[in-house]
């Protein structure tokens, strides 16, 4: 399915499940090669960068104070540390992190990570590349690319220290799955842009990406939904997350 299909008012779905050790694709259904904005799933690579360069120090340091100039929603108006950042998906913390990284280091990490289309130029909707490239802007990634990237992270194949890997693993939220599965992952939500380049609330994006462990087995997953209706009560990312948590044990059973 090409980019024109995404622009059309059609539901875009993908679920992909990969064995972390072998790289075998265990389950793949939907338009999994279609790249869209990563939104807050990008907090995973941002954590890797922050710990690798030393801006982030451990699970609770640094604690950064909320500033009114950030102009964020009431939900985000609180002091935040790395655990709170990932758990509550605090956008301003990500932006403070990339400001401290600076454009050169940020761009270098994205390139060396081989993350999605690697485009952090910004631009669409007036977005700034350094602080908004991943937010309905220039950076895009497909579900296929998400699982390949996360597998490289879990296997120690990214150009970051083992210390950065361990600390990132420590702050990613855990969710309890059925049949003994421990699921770690990050949601993301936003919306597609219309032909005029404006955010289209009737085309919401929901992501859930991460990994799941049971015994000595670890699977990497990505689920994406781009819908054709508004989600006014439960955020689309929560719907996607909860459905994946419910489905994963069943998807893993047959393999």
TrEMBL record:
Molecular function terms from GO: penicillin binding
Name this polypeptide is given: Class D beta-lactamase
InterPro entries, alphabetized: Beta-lactam/transpept-like, PCN-bd_Tpept
Top-level taxon: Bacteria
Pfam families xref list: Transpeptidase (PF00905)
Domain Penicillin-binding protein transpeptidase, chain residue ranges per copy: 14-233
């Amino acid at each position: 399915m090409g980019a024109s299909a995404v622009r059309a008012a059609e539901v875009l779905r993908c679920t992909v499940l990969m064995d972390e050790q072998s790289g075998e694709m265990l389950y793949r259904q939907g338009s999994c090669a279609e790249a869209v904005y990563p939104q807050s799933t990008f907090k995973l690579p941002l954590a890797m960068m922050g710990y690798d360069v030393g801006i982030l120090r451990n699970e609770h340091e640094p604690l950064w104070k909320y500033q009114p100039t950030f102009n964020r929603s009431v939900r985000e108006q609180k002091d935040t540390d790395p655990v709170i950042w990932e758990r509550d998906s605090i956008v301003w913390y990500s932006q403070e992190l990339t400001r401290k990284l600076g454009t050169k280091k940020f761009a270098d990490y994205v390139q060396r990570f081989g993350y999605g289309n690697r485009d952090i130029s910004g631009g669409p909707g007036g977005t700034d590349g350094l602080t908004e490239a991943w937010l309905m802007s220039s950076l895009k990634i497909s579900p296929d690319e998400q699982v390949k990237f996360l597998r490289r992270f879990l296997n120690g194949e990214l150009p970051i220290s083992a210390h950065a890997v361990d600390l990132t693993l420590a702050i990613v939220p855990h969710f309890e799955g059925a049949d003994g599965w421990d699921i770690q992952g990050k949601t993301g939500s936003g919306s597609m842009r219309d032909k005029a380049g404006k955010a289209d609330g009737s085309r919401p994006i929901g992501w859930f990406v991460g990994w799941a462990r049971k015994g000595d087995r670890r699977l990497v997953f990505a689920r994406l939904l781009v819908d054709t209706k508004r989600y006014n009560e439960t955020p689309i990312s929560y719907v996607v997350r909860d459905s994946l948590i419910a489905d994963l044990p069943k998807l893993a059973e047959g393999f």
